[in-house]
Design a protein that fits this description.
Radius of gyration: 20 Å
Order of helices and strands: EHEHEHEHHHHEEEHEHHHEHHEHHEE
Strand content: 15-25%
Number of helices: 15
Shape: globular
Strand order of the largest sheet: 1-7-4-2-3
Distance between the termini: 21 Å
Number of strands: 12
Largest sheet: 5 strands, mixed
Length: 395
Amino acid sequence: MSRRAVVAGVGMIPFTTPSRSETYDVMGTKAARAALLDAGVEYAKIQQAYAGYVYGDSTCGQAVVYGLGQTGIPVLNVNNNCSTGSSALYLARQAVESGVADAVLAVGFEQMQRGALAMGYTDRPSPFARFDAVMDQIQERDESPFAAQMFGGAGRQYAEKYGTSPETFAKISVKSRRHAANNPFAVFRDPVTVEEVLASPHIYGPLTRLQCCPPTCGAAAAVIVSEEFARANGIDPSVIIRAQAMATDFSSTFTENDMTKIVGYDMSKAAAQQVYEASGVSPEDLRVVELHDCFTANELLTYEAIGLTAEGTAEKFVQDGDNTYGGRVVTNPSGGLLSKGHPLGATGLAQCAELVWQLRGQAEARQVEGDVQLALQHNIGLGGAAVVTLYEKVS
């Protein structure tokens, strides 16, 4: 029988733009140290470390972890595109639940460059070649960033199917900024209006610039321990990972000529369903969710993929305010990727930190009202991987 994985401590640093960033090793070490301090665990007691990043040379994880000390522990480097941070968390949780380790560090960091995401190598097959081939059968290419074409195309296809208005997509950005105003870790905290969002430069499909997450630098970390370790070391064991699942693409991604499938709808849905089945929790039980809003289109699609609202009803979900404070479930109280920022390797662990703070009642002005018992995290990376994690506060 597997053991419970306790989230003993979390930490992150304020996210920033590339022009203001420290180097990845400095950022990563700071976030890891903050998580250890939050947990009340000495680094010497950590038995394994999983380090997530996308843009960097091999063994950057060691450079970060060595800033804490050199204790000879295994350090594993993880790269799963935008789901890298939660993939590191997935491995840390597995190590603890299986009994391989009692105290594990997951740290994610990214030192990004200005501008849109781009492929690092042009002399070998792209991991997106199969996705690109399907996309070229569905829609025309232009000069906009490839990720915006994928998610923007998915948003356009959804809007054509269900009649979704441009204002609905824009309202997600407005909500994101409103939440981020209370987050000292967020890059963009100034409010915007629907009119300002729609008037910003057009990118692709329904997307304008203010509906796209910015290139961001930052780091976040979590310490995962067993309940036995927590009791033996005086650690608060009240936040656990109740269930977690990772899914990759299905054949439907490449056979159905559907842009929503290209951007991970089916793997998000599968991972969420596995979590609900493993935990006995339903989407109706949730009051706070951090989900992968790299573009407004993906937030809207994800509402349905993870079961927050029925297929074809996402517009009503937004228009009724069911995605924010006072509604049914607060989505991205941190401001999400759109406003908090999206340092690829750190995003999944930043989501983890926000939800742990929500469960502890430590989210300050962002705190969801009442006694929050459950929190869901959704993080995807094209290419692809979707990780869904359910946290629970236990007595």
